[in-house]
Design goal:
- By secondary structure, the chain is α+β, with helices and mostly antiparallel strands.
- Helix content is 18%, strand content 38%.
- Helix 1 runs antiparallel to helix 2.
- The longest helix is centred in the C-terminal third of the chain and has 24 residues.
């Protein structure tokens, strides 16, 4: 009986170890309020608002997120800082929401009219106040024939291009970062236009309800074992 009780407890503990699940928090730029402060209203016939550069968003587990737009590459001054566009939902669906780049300041229309996205070789970078996880970046509005590049690194000015000419079979595309980074950027690869829709940040591993039940069973088993050992003494 003692041996059987030990085996039962060991099995329960083993399942518990595999039952814990890590999770992520997607920081999606949907807009609350719908248009961030400093952004001009959407121009008639266009899908997004024009915003100042270095726009900040509350990032939850990512702390504060700062968006910076460039006319070209986001690395080392190769692209000149410009302005941002912001597409929220509603009225846009999630895959058509996010951040784009604009050549002119708020109060003007989108230079990528009417889409208001990242066009040409422009890029949008996100700097987080805590490291982003190695989970994913969501790139929106990726149509057939459109491609993008991903840059990542510890700071603006020291980014490395980690993926070139990426395409997707779906409009909302997921890219897995190879390592956790503080800055990630999406650059349009020269055809069409795309959006930086979301970044992911890590959250603590949380035991699932079934795992908690197994933990209770294991503890009960230990209690029963201790009681039997006391009786045998």
């Amino acid at each position: 009986m003692l041996r059987k009780a030990l085996l039962t407890i060991a099995a329960g503990a083993g399942v518990l170890a595999f039952g814990a699940s890590s999770s992520k928090a997607d920081e999606i730029f949907l807009g609350t309020p719908p248009t961030p402060a400093g952004c001009a209203a959407v121009v008639a016939g266009e899908q997004g608002a024009v915003c100042p550069n270095n726009l900040t968003f509350p990032g939850g587990t990512a702390g504060t997120l700062t968006a910076t737009a460039f006319s070209g590459s986001p690395n080392g001054g190769a692209g000149t800082e410009t302005f941002l566009t912001f597409k929220a939902t509603p009225p846009n669906a999630q895959e058509e929401s996010g951040l784009g780049q604009n050549a002119t300041a708020p109060g003007t229309g989108c230079s990528d009219a009417p889409d208001c996205e990242i066009a040409g070789t422009a890029s949008v970078a996100i700097t987080a106040s805590v490291a982003l996880s190695a989970l994913d970046v969501l790139i929106g509005s990726v149509q057939t024939g459109e491609a993008f590049n991903i840059w990542a690194g510890p700071a603006l000015g020291s980014l490395v291009e980690v993926a070139t000419g990426q395409t997707c079979a779906t409009v909302l595309c997921q890219f897995i970062l190879p390592t956790p980074e503080t800055v990630v950027a999406v650059q349009n690869a020269g055809a069409g236009d795309v959006l930086l829709t979301a970044v992911s940040t890590p959250t603590a591993s949380t035991p699932e309800p079934a795992s908690l039940a197994l933990l209770g069973s294991a503890l009960a088993g230990f209690g029963l074992l201790a009681r039997r050992r006391r009786k045998s003494l």
